[in-house]
Amino acid sequence: MKIEINATKRDVKGTGASRRLRHAGSIPGILYGGGKDPVSLDLEHKSLFLQFRHEAFHASILTLNLEGSKESVLLRDYQMHPVRNTIQHIDFQRVNENEKIHVKVPFHFVNAEVSPGVKLNGGIVAHIMTEANISCLPKNLPEFIEVDLAALDIGQSIHLSQIKVVEGVEFVQLSHGNDAAVASVAKPRAVVEEVIAKPVEGAADAAAPAADGAKPAEGAASADEAKSDKAK
To answer: b/e per residue, 204-214, with b = 16+ CB within 10 A?
Structure first.
């Protein structure tokens, strides 16, 4: 998926200027890297936000059209408004096609429903990782990495070393000797059923009040006798 972003150069800087841009429906940003000077950007919020919502926007080589001059860039950082869910600032990095890049790429999990752990044993899939940091040349950057769960049984996990990636792509964690687990299948939690206990035979009779005229147990004072004693 090819994504092109339109931007103009922003001459005015500072907190006040950025605030005025946001009020006018724009987003302040910056472009840096590639051995060139950083450039302050002005981007239209509405069109950028529509692109920003796509998963590929966060893990793809983007084309930045800066006043007619196009460059290949990566999304490197952004800040969101805590309440309004709007982009407050965005950073792009220039890409050199001959230099490896480090990018976080999302996992797409497939075939969980046909795995023995889920289909035959009623297990539940736990996604331990949802993305991974990879290293590759820009031309080899995948939008996502597929994780096939078809062989997992109860109690089993799939690790980074078991995931197939295209040639030229490597997991940064693996290169540092960390073969982390990505997903596993666990036993479902036991369902605790409410048990209604049967009353013990004779317990209801014992709890019931004495019938009219019944003689109180030996040594037990009747209610009338108790009243009489108080009157004395």
So the answer is: eeeeeeeeeee
Q: 10-residue block means of pLDDT along the chain (232 residues)? A: 91 80 91 94 95 94 96 96 93 95 96 96 96 96 96 97 96 97 89 44 50 48 49 47
Burial call 127-153: b when 16+ CB within 10 Å, e when fewer: eeeeebebbbebebbbbebebbbeebe
Per-residue model confidence (pLDDT) at position 201: 53
pLDDT of residue 217: 47
Q: Is 30 helix (H, G, I), strand (E, B) or coil?
A: strand
Residue (of 37, 189, 211) closest to 126 by Cα position = 189
Candidates 168, 184, 15; CA nearest to 115 is: 184
Q: 203: part of which helix (H) or strand (E)?
A: helix 203-207
User: In CATH, which superfamily holds the domain spanning 101-186?
Assistant: Ribosomal protein L25, C-terminal domain (2.170.120.20)
- Is 4-94 in CATH node 2.40.240.10? yes
Number of residues that make up the chain: 232
Ranges of H-type helices in 59-189: 116-119, 172-175
Domain range annotation of the chain: 4-94, 101-186
